[in-house]
Amino acid sequence: MSKFSTCSFMSYTTLLQPRASLKVQKEGIVTARCTKVARNLNMEKLRNNYLFPEISTREIEHMKKYPNAKIISLGIGDTTDPLPEIISSSMADYARALSTPEGYKGYGAEQGNKELRKAIAETFYGDLAIKDTEVFVSDGSQCDISRLQLLLGNNVSIAVQDPSFPAYIDSSVIIGQAGDFQDETGEYRNIEYMRCGPQNHFFPDLSTTSRTDIIFFCSPNNPTGHAASRKQLIQLVDFARENGSIIVYDSAYAAYITDESPRSIYEIPGAREVAIEVSSFSKIAGFTGVRLGWTVVPDELLFSNGFPIMNDFNRIVCTCFNGASNIAQAGGLACLSPGGIRALLSVVDRYKENARILVDTFASLGLKAYGGVNAPYVWVHFPGSRSWDVFSEILEKTHIITVPGSGFGPGGEEYIRVTAFGHRECILEASERLKSLFS
Ligand SMILES: Cc1ncc(COP(=O)(O)O)c(C=O)c1O
What we know:
Aminotransferase class I/classII large domain-containing protein; 4-stranded antiparallel β-sheet; 15 strands; Aspartate Aminotransferase, domain 2; globular; 7-stranded mixed β-sheet; binds pyridoxal-5'-phosphate; Aspartate Aminotransferase, domain 1; alpha/beta
């Protein structure tokens, strides 16, 4: 066995130990051998560890306490099913050809392979008049969210759904758009939190929402699983147009929509002048590890001085990125072939069926569960309970990892998120364990 593979079997706890020669004074602060470089103050402002590392730490502690427990992870939203052969073989063929004089390719276009940009425009935006030149292929939408923050700089104000995917707020803090974290509210200053819950059909009350430059909006939403209706998105686009704001619309889960909800913000008239869309192959094609996504920046989207935003985004992509892996892009093209689409939608259907099993499980226990119909996430309400307490109780009694809703913002308190990504037998086993805990 190689050194490398041996290392991959080391326990997490070993890897997390500080090196013996370094003294840890307070959490994360090491005293020996400091440089003279001051820490980025924005990084200092970041409140918690990123949510998922914190969950991993708790999982490791649980494994130490119950070494024989069979843990089921319904936590991090990572895909579990193997890639369809038609997609993996296209990447394997491409990779093999790289070893031949005819098949070798070096750098590609920073904006992505032309054929793939065209296929994305046609497949996901059909008759919405998105041009291939408006599609920027990337290594995933989380990376694009940060690149967009770099493009926007620290002088803009932002609004986010509360609860929401943590990358919007964290990248905003890192770039310097946010003020200090307030313990009393669980919010950063200078960020507009748009509360979304069952009380407002998971759509913010825009009449009380302050104007911001940027509005991050995710639909179907992670974590609530809610897909905004056409009527809601018309209100959102109108709001952005009235305020001269830009919507950064995250459609990473659009493939899970089963009802009439729009799959793209560009289905809404007027959106081209106010919206950027980020999206991903991660959850539709199981590319969470392969890494492939895209961002659409329409021609008509302009800064206040009339400068096209697309030109600046192009500059950011050329300077800070240099293009997605050509092997991943070959896989992306295979995904969008007729056989590829059929194959990946059948995987999506399997996850949707998992979601249905989970929704039924919670419903049978008399718990209020949202989502799961248009998204691979089920959002479960435990009125009066703190979400980390619910997380801990479920882990302690059933060995199931969930995600505490408060990790997605103060609006997630009293909820947990459960993912439908998982092998069917694990979902069924989790369902049985939850039934015996709560019934
Ligand atoms: C809403 C949302 N956007 C973006 C991402 C990141 O996707 P990618 O793998 O393309 O970086 C995730 C991942 O969980 C997500 O939930």
